[in-house]
Structure formats: structure tokens, C-alpha cells
Specification:
Blueprint: E1 6-9, H1 13-55, H2 62-102, E2 104-106, E3 111-116, E4 131-135, E5 139-146, E6 162-163, E7 167-171, E8 174-178, E9 180-183, E10 193-200, E11 214-217, E12 227-230, E13 234-237, E14 240-252, E15 255-264, E16 267-270, E17 274-277, E18 303-307, H3 313-317
Antiparallel strand pairs: 1-2, 3-4, 5-10, 6-9, 7-8, 7-11, 9-10, 12-17, 13-14, 14-15, 15-18, 16-17
Helix pairs in contact: 1-2
């Protein structure tokens, strides 16, 4: 369904009948107000005439003048009461119009109905769940971060609550870059974590659904250069993670020759295709040729003749 389209319609015949009753009562109240207004105008004219006769000494008693004044005031009060009664009925009529409008449940956003809680003809009351609607538009990814990182997010989430930075989110077997980020300044006292909300839209949200698990790489330190190697170059051994390099290589344009050497590495973080490793003395250095195919079967000292695989733009930038 699209936003604004009807999802559920409640039978409105009883509501319409009750509204019609209120509308009829309103018409009666308006008619009574008109009648009271005419009678009040007539009483005002009588009062003017009686007061004039009393002043002229025509034998009109003070009692008759008081009665005329009382009647005029009483009829004016009746006019005011009729007007207030009509206003109350107009407000009640507006309430019935609102109830009739609410009888049609419309989609608050683009989505898909994934669960129906009621059957046709079933009685419902205010608060009864009708359907479950899953958004097919923007998706919010809620991430729980340790409270100690709240101050470290200033670079991507300013104090205003919405940032212009970027984080890489992984969900549904793929990754996407989210640039709409906000932190919720509420720490869970049980887990000592706070939510970071990343919004994905368009193609980035395609294939994602509420309830899926997600993870993200979030920058919390200062911007700095980092040595990146392809994920395929990592070799997992009991002693730890390492990469196989070509030692004593013979530069040969599109290919190199030499012997395989195992270099232990410490993985700092991952991106979509590469991992960042720590640069340490005696460890992997920038410019080294790492083996990405067949490296699991190699042993240190094995002669190799490798062809150079062009690095992706992402790796060049790294």
C-alpha cells in the first residue's frame, strides 16, 4: 500500500445513524433559537411600550413594568441558551464526523501488510490491533553502542542530534553507507548502551526489512591513514591471522617471482572488500605484494610465480 491508501474500513452504518440523530437535534435547536429570538424581540417591544406608558402616567403599575422587564430578560436568556445548545451540537457533530473519518484506517507510510489481526465482520473497539504494516520506504537501523563511545561520536553526530557523517552498515548480506545518523541520548541502565540510529533509503533500503540483524563499522577515533589489504589475502592459522607475501620478488611488470613468506598481521577493522591492518616494525609494510589466490595451500619458502591483480579504486584510496 501507498501512504494514504485505505487498509481497513469499519462498518459506518451505526455511526452514520447516530450522526443523523445529532444533526436532527441540531436542526431542532436552531429552530428553537429562532423562535426564542422572535419572542425576545416581541418582549423587548412590549417593554418599551409599557415603560413609555408608565412615564406618560397612563395608569401602568410598577409591577407590570417589572414583569415586562423580567419576561424580556428571560426570553433573551432563552436565546443565549439556544445558541449555546446549537454550538454544543455542532461540536458533537464534528466529533461524529471525526469518528466516521477514523473508521477508514489509512496507511501512514508506504509499506506491505504482513499480518492481519481481525476477520471480516468481527467486532472491534478503540485500541484493537487490526494489521501489521512493514515499511517499504526508509529503513531505520538501530545500533546499541557502549556508553563510553558517546563522546567519541561528535565527529559524525553533532550535539544537535543529527549528523552529516557516514557509517557503513551491514544487513541482509550486503553493506551500504548511511549518511543520515542520529544518536538517542538515553543510556540503558541494564546494558550501559545507548542507541545510534542510521536511516537507509532508496536502493540502500531495498531487500531490508524490520527485524533483520545489522552491524556497522563506526569511526570513533581521529582520521588517519591505514594500511589496507584485500580480505582474500588473510590466512587464519592456529597462531593467529597472517598474510602470505612474495619475498625477494623479481619485478616483472604484470608478474612477480620469489618465495612465499608468512607475515602475521593484526586486523583493526573491515570494509566491504578490504581490512585495515596495523603497521608494525618487522611486519607488513606498504607496497608489499600479498597473495590473494592459493595462499591457503602455501608454506613459507615455497617458490611462487604470481601475476599482479589490479587493485580496486577502493583499495587505491585506502
Amino acid at each position: 500500500v501507498r501512504v494514504g491508501e485505505p487498509i481497513v474500513e469499519i462498518d459506518m452504518r451505526r455511526l452514520a445513524a447516530q450522526r443523523a440523530g445529532v444533526a436532527a437535534t441540531l436542526a431542532e435547536a436552531e429552530a428553537a433559537g429562532i423562535r426564542a429570538g422572535v419572542e425576545a424581540d416581541d418582549a423587548d417591544l412590549d417593554l418599551v411600550a409599557i415603560e413609555a406608558a408608565a412615564k406618560a402616567g397612563s395608569g401602568v403599575s410598577d409591577r407590570e413594568v417589572r414583569r415586562a422587564r423580567t419576561l424580556a430578560k428571560s426570553l433573551r436568556a432563552s436565546v443565549s441558551a439556544a445558541e449555546k445548545r446549537a454550538e454544543a451540537l455542532v461540536a458533537e457533530l464534528d466529533l461524529w464526523d471525526l469518528r466516521i473519518a477514523d473508521a477508514t484506517l489509512r496507511a501512514p507510510f508506504d509499506g506491505t501488510v504482513v499480518e492481519v489481526h481481525v476477520e471480516v465482520g468481527e467486532w472491534v473497539s478503540p485500541g484493537t490491533p487490526l494489521v501489521r504494516l512493514v515499511s517499504t520506504g526508509d529503513i531505520e537501523v538501530w545500533l546499541d553502542l557502549p556508553e563510553r563511545l558517546m563522546a567519541s561520536l561528535a565527529g559524525i553526530v553533532p550535539s544537535s542530534g543529527a549528523g552529516t557523517g557516514q557509517i557503513e552498515v551491514r544487513a541482509g548480506g550486503r553493506s551500504a553507507v548511511a549518511d543520515r545518523i542520529r544518536a538517542v541520548p538515553r543510556v540503558n541502565p541494564g546494558t550501559r548502551t545507548f542507541p545510534l540510529v542510521a536511516t537507509l533509503g532508496g536502493e540502500d533500503a531495498a531487500g531490508l526489512s524490520p527485524g533483520m540483524s545489522a552491524s556497522a563499522w563506526i569511526p570513533v577515533g581521529e582520521l588517519q591513514s591505514t594500511l589496507m589489504v584485500p580480505k582474500d589475502s588473510l590466512v587464519y592459522r592456529p597462531a593467529g591471522v597472517a598474510v602470505m607475501t612474495v619475498a625477494g620478488r623479481d619485478e616483472g611488470g604484470a608478474s612477480v617471482g620469489g618465495t612465499a613468506a608468512m607475515v602475521p598481521v593484526k586486523v583493526l577493522f573491515e570494509s566491504e572488500n578490504d581490512v585495515a591492518v596495523e603497521i608494525a616494525e618487522g611486519g607488513l609494510q606498504p607496497g608489499a605484494v600479498v597473495i590473494v589466490e592459493g595462499n591457503e595451500r602455501l608454506f613459507p619458502g615455497t617458490p611462487v610465480s604470481a601475476s599482479i591483480k589490479a587493485a580496486s579504486d577502493q583499495r587505491k584510496k585506502g
